[in-house]
Amino acid sequence: MTDEYFMxxxxxxxxxxxxxxxxxxxxxxxxxxxxxxxxxxxxERLNDPTAHAEIIALTSAFNFLGSKYLxxxxxxxxxxxxxxxxxxxxxxxxxxAAYGAPDVKNGYKKYVEPCPSLxxxxxxxxxxxxxxxxxEGILADECATLMKEFxxxxx
Length: 155
Known about the structure:
Layout: H1 3-19, E1 26-31, E2 34-40, H2 43-46, H3 53-65, E3 73-79, H4 83-92, E4 96-101, H5 108-111, H6 116-120, E5 133-136, H7 140-154
Parallel strand pairs: 3-4, 4-5
Antiparallel strand pairs: 1-2, 1-3
Helix pairs in contact: 1-7
């Protein structure tokens, strides 16, 4: 199974959110090439600003495994995660975080500006666990298109 295959599965979750009138973000978590949890935004349904796709998928994975850590898991997210979600991913100690399209308005990169003093000594600030591998841009166009269609329909 490839990163593209799993991102397509996350896109299916994002389409569920879209159909429910939620911001179309989807996430899946895999271990050993197998999907162990899924999530899509449920902020409106649950009236909960923390009910992001990543949080839903993380909670489901923790319950499935009976563990609060995911050091051998990968999360696939259709859109760049926000700071809240990167914090949750940090504490989960997830092995790999892969996302599709950037989120220039609410993604973590907006809030984690390069710090010149840290960069001078070769340390780039990032909100993920030090061992987490971050991969960006998987099926970015497809992920961005769904988001653009959602907001275009709302305007």
